[in-house]
Amino acid sequence: MSNTSSSSEGARAFPNTRWSLVLAATGKEAPESAAALESLCRAYWYPLYAYVRRRGQSPQDAQDLTQEFFCRLLEKRWLDSADRAKGRLRAFLVVALKNFLSKEWRRASAQRRGGGHSQAPLDTALAESRYAAEAPAKLEPDAAFDREWALTLLDLTVNRLRAEFAAAGRPDDFEALKGCLLAERGGIDYAALAGRMGLNEGAARVAAHRLRRRFRQVYREEISQTLADSADLEGELRHLAAALAGG
Q1: 47, 243 in Cβ contact below 8 A?
Q2: pLDDT in tens, 159-197
Q3: Residue 190, class by beta-carbon neighbours within 10 Å (0-12 exposed, 13-18 middle, 19+ buried)?
Q4: Residue-wise DSSP of 128-197
Q5: By the 8 A CB rule, do 68 and 45 touch?
Q6: What residues contact 153, with CB distance under 8 A and at least 6 apart?
Q7: Would you say the C-alpha torsion 220, 221, 224, 226 has a positive or negative sign?
Q8: pTM of this prediction exceeds 0.85
Q9: Which residues fall within 8 angstroms of residue 192, CB to CB, at 6 or more apart?
Q10: I want to staple 230 with a disulfide (CB 3.0 to 4.6 A). Which of 14, 28, 45, 177 is the partner?
Q11: CA of 238: how far to CAs of 12, 108, 159, 245, in Å?
């Protein structure tokens, strides 16, 4: 199937993304806009935290700065200046964060550590464990940000799949199958998988194939939710694949 065909199918599948709905509500008194943006921030805060850490901030300062950035993002309507032409949440957030760090954060320092803003629920202990495990020392902050963004989207995808299996009453099947998601072609031991799932080998092959296919579908959906529309979904897929390969 050609990229053009895939792109047109993506456009039909994702006509309204969370990011496009937020952008559409900018400049208006729209509580749903703030709620949608807060939901996005909760999902995607870790790559921003990792970027601040990569800039040399301590864990506590990185937490404070990331929380303050989100508060100001929500309160000051920085979305009004978002570039509709590019339409990527990833690009908008990192540019806004850079501006905040270079121009705003010293003035905000007196208000940090409980300065009256509602705080985003950042799990710093978990973030530091993930940062130590995932952040290659050789990467520059921007490259590290893109890599963590891609890993965050993968995490969201896996969590959705886990929830789907749980809702279907099959959580154990997901735990047995999830290793297939990262396996190279020809690298799955179907006999062992069949034994863990209590299936014959043919049924285990089918189950693994279906999960991998569903993974690709959900991953595309998660990426599409960070775009103003799905017109450049294929380009974003390539960019994130390169970011992961560069780590």
Answers
A1: no
A2: 999 999 999 999 999 999 999 998 887 899 999 999 999
A3: middle
A4: HHHHHHH--TT--HHHHHHHHHHHHHHHHHHHHHHHHHHHTT-HHHHHHHGGGGSPPTT---HHHHHHHH
A5: no
A6: 219, 222, 223, 226, 240
A7: negative
A8: no
A9: none
A10: 14
A11: 20, 37, 22, 10
Number of helices and strands (H, E) in the chain? 12, 0
- Amino acid of residue 40: L
What residues does each domain of the chain span? 10-246
**Residue 85: pLDDT band by 50, 70, 90 thresholds?**
very low
End-to-end CA distance of the chain: 29
Directed axis angle between helix 141-167 and helix 201-224, to 10°? 130
Please name the residue that has the structure tokens 């800039």.
55
Question: How far is Cα 196 from Cα 184, in angstroms, rounded to an integer?
Answer: 20
2, 208 Cβ separation under 8 angstroms: no
Strand partners, 227: 88
Using DSSP, state whether 9 is helix, strand or coil.
helix
Tokens of 34: 């703030």
Place of tokens 């047109």: 8
Q: Which residue has the tokens 């991998």?
A: 212
Q: DSSP secondary structure string, 61-90? A: HHHHHHHHHHHHHHHTTGGGG--TTT-BHH
Count of Cβ atoms closer than 10 Å to residue 183 Cβ: 13
Amino acid at site 101: L
